[in-house]
Amino acid sequence: MNLLRRREDLVCQQVVELVTDYLEGTLSRGDRKRFERHLAACPNCTAYLEQMRLTITTTGRLTPEDLTPEARQEFTDLFRAWRAEGPPEDGTPG
Question: What is the reported pTM?
Answer without folding.
Answer: 0.57
